[in-house]
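User: Structure tokens for both sequences below?

Assistant:
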Amino acid sequence: MKMRLLCGALLVGLVVVPGVQAQQFDDRWYVAGSAGLNVQDSERGTRNAPFFTLGAGRMVSPAWSVEGQFNYQNPNLDINEDLYWSQYGVSLDLRRHFMAEGQGWGPYLLVGLGYQRAEEEFDASPSPQSPGQREDGNLAAKIGAGLQSDLGRLAVRAEVAYRADFDDSSVNAPDSDWFGDMLASVGVVIPLGPEPVAPVAPAPTPSTAPNCADMDDDGDGVNNCDDKCPGSQAGQTIGPDGCPVPVSIDLRGVNFDFDKATLRPDAVQILSEAVQILQRYPELRVEVAGHTDLCGPDAYNQQLSQRRAQTVFDYLTSNGIDASRLAGPVGYGETRPLEQTPQELPACKNERNRRTELNVQNS
């Protein structure tokens, strides 16, 4: 019977414990008191009796508490209610709490170890010293489970436990080596001291990280926020978006017929692309330069290159490019050939040398 009760107490403890985490740690000392019913082991020959406890303890971690407890009960003997029988003791109890954050109630498991003392009167007739009295103390252990509210200012506790009392000298039950009692109680837990206050998070410190608008990692004069080409190198001509632009916008294909300064139809598309480049970079200034091949007198070639540069200049301004952004037009004659050729006909006829260029200005 006693073993069945022990197993039952263990099962109760397992059933009431869900898999939850302990809540915020409240490590205040507390005092506790409870009252309940002590269901006596039937082998004692005593009746069930009320009992009470007084204790003190504290939470030692978010999930564990330790409590020292005093208990007292005064049951009557079945065979003679006039005979005195009392039992009291102390124990050190360890509770494993399962309180979740935001949950007002939480279950717990209990184990305890202590000392129980019995004071037992018995009929010693026909001795003149009747009734006789036995006073004895012995080891006791208990297991149990309960439900406790959050501490706050006051907590409420309900508990069921099984206590094994290793009393092997009972007069009323001489054949028993130990007794198992069931304890069911309700009580209060009163924390001592002010309720802990959650620490206030420090105010966020102002960010000291530099703003990208104030940084220019590649030193190209364009801040990191606007720089679309952060890998550009010093010395390059950089547009307002941080990307390199060609020092010379080669109008490859804008060539001229021999001894002519008029635009050929195939040059219009290329000049349109040059207009788009200049519109994309509104801060860009360019020199409009004209060149000739090595055929003919120098003075004539100078005038011819000037007319070719003027033709491109006029095209750009007529298509929306402000003249203030254009230096020139400048004719370089035959002084800057891309390919060195003889000066005699027909070898001097070189279409690559008969060209115009837009040379980017740094200021």
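Moving on to the next sequence.
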Amino acid sequence: MSDSLMAMLGETFHMFLFLATELTLLFLVISFIVGVINEVLPAGKVQKILSSRNGRGYFTGAILGSVTPFCSCSTIPMLTGLLKARAGFGPTMTFLFTSPLLNPVIIGLFLVTFGVKITVIYAVVALTVAVVASVILEKLKFDRFIRSDVLQAGSSTGCGSKSTGCSSNTADSSSCCDSNDTTASQSCYSTPTSQCCDNKPAPSGCCTAEQPESRWMRVWHETWSQFRKVLPWLMVGVVIGSFTYGFVPNELITRFAGSDNPLAVPVAAFIGIPLYIRAETMIPLAATLAAKGMSLGALMALIIGSAGASITEVFLLKSLFRGPMVAAFLLVIFSMAIIGGYSFSLFM
């Protein structure tokens, strides 16, 4: 086996370990944080803040995306939380598009590497395309492609769950409350004993610990359940992304995306999407790629394509949306990369 092949296999293996570890930790941590937020912030409040009935919801979604330093894959847990809270679909999509592209880390690196003018053009293009695309998807009712299980409430079914807790209106035979007890408004998770309402034994699954413990455990169980659903998609995406990273040389990119190629921008955008190259990694490499002959427009298309989407994220999105919405997402990122690339070629 040649040294070059061994080197590529080594890079692929190291990238696989890095991506699998990083994305697993990011997914679990962010999912748990989002679960805590959903626990303390009423869904109605989220719906009001990110409502698509006026432009403020889209603006709020863009701001939320721009202040969250997430990569394209670690955006998914936050996206899931917004979908579960029934936030406006359009503003939620604006968050999805802007989060990996306009966070403070990327903007700071752009300023240092390319200067103010290029950074402003980049930010305006990304924000404009994200908002316009989100409005169009909202008008076309693409929210119908959200998978039904994503919109369901948390998986908890015991009395600690808000949807099935002890209340005078919802108690039933599966609840730990006596359906005939007029004092059943007390929530079971505030009862520290193994007995629930009316001194009857707590059925299986009933929350009997004190409120803080039951609340955190409920959030963790929901986080772990969500992670198990997306784990197969995550691993498939990591394997493909790692293989691409290890076996696609920079020379191949610059050959098809050089300044002499009139199709350099769409080619760079097309190449960028399958690659898992975070913008924080891609931007410092920009000077090297430019020195190898890549045009600025193609370079911007590559940055937007690789940071805005990845094979791993596509597989994660498949756990949330049906095919047409996933295809629409890829079309938006591809269009954003092309518009951004040609804008740089035109104005720079």
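User: Anything stand out in the second?

Assistant: The radius of gyration is 24 Å.
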